[in-house]
Amino acid sequence: MAEVDNTALLQFLLRTGDNTLILGHRVSEWCGHAPILEEDIALANTALDLIGQTQLWLGYAAEVQGMGKSADDLAFLRDVWDFRNVLLVELPNGDFGQTLMRQFLFDAWHSIMLPRLAKGTDERVREIAQKAVKEVSYHVERSADTVVGLGDGTEESHARMQAALDYLYPYVGELFESDEVDAAMVDAGIAPDPASLRDEYDALVGRVMEKATLTVPDGSFAHKGGRTGRMHTEHLGHLVSSMQWLQRAYPGSEW
Amino acid sequence: MKNEWPLWEVFIRGQHGLAHRHVGSLHAPDAEMAIKNARDVYTRRNEGVSIWVVEARHIAATAPGEKGPLFEPSESKVYRHPTFFDIPEEVGHM
């Protein structure tokens, strides 16, 4: 196994932690607004799980970076262009169905990626993944059930779920992009090549969509640029400005 | 058509060896989602090792109006409590 280059490891950790940070924040936007109380609590639990994972990923990222920063510094004091999350997780919540469709498309990938990380060569990555995988097994079960329930539900819920899938699907491809950072992770045995997870993902998503009576769109076009930092959608700026507002207005504030 | 999801009663076993206890109720479209909702609503602070849910309409219950005939007769039957036995010292704490 190759010795891992810290620059590559840092990028990998930022990508992993920013995915959970941005999705966790997005999901938390439902708090107090979900269609029913039980779903409200369930979504808040999911958001908290993701934020908890973020603390671990970005905490490790800050150590690897070696500039004396903390997970909070990375979450609240970076600007939009520094984030390395995939575009999928920053997309707006839309209606409840769109939120759950986005959640399922991410959970499905997350549930396939984490068990690999939990068996990698980096002890810290392994420990974080082992903790996260239990939470994510539940997330994917819940989001899959809801996608099936709404997809195979009423005429209106079916139409909304199909529209959500059509809108979100072009953002799925970015999860399976590989570049030199991924190659370094593969060489060091820390993480798998994202591209190698695609077949398993397609099988899982295909099964759930079939039960949900939804049609997975054709075409392999993928919106991308988030995980490399080349570009984000217009939506991330708004998210970051509300997420970081307090630290920006009252720098260093603690309670 | 009724749009409201049915009501489910939730029972949680706190530890192995203890009985399930009624902890509250919630709404869910089916039993599977009721268990998931119960997990999210009632076990987020490490309260349980097992969950039961039952749709509230399946619980048969006594009517509050019948509490006189049902329960009052037992109020005057103190002899039904096993308090009239002399416990030998050797038995110790029971």
UniProtKB/TrEMBL annotation, chain A:
BP GO terms, sorted: phenylacetate catabolic process
For this protein, the record's Gene3D superfamilies field holds: 1.20.1260.10
Native source species: Salinihabitans flavidus
NCBIfam families per the UniProt record, alphabetical: PA_CoA_Oxy3
Classification of source organism? Bacteria, Pseudomonadati, Pseudomonadota, Alphaproteobacteria, Rhodobacterales
A Gene Ontology cellular component where this protein is annotated is: cytosol
A Pfam family of this chain: PaaA_PaaC
Among PANTHER family, the record links this protein to: 1,2-PHENYLACETYL-COA EPOXIDASE, SUBUNIT C, PHENYLACETIC ACID DEGRADATION PROTEIN PAA
Q: What is this protein called?
A: Ring-1,2-phenylacetyl-CoA epoxidase subunit PaaC
From TrEMBL, chain B:
For this entry, the protein name equals Ring-1,2-phenylacetyl-CoA epoxidase subunit PaaB
Among InterPro entries, the record links this protein to: PaaB (IPR009359), PaaB_sf (IPR038693)
- List, alphabetically, the Pfam families matched: PaaB
> What is the organism field in this record?
Salinihabitans flavidus
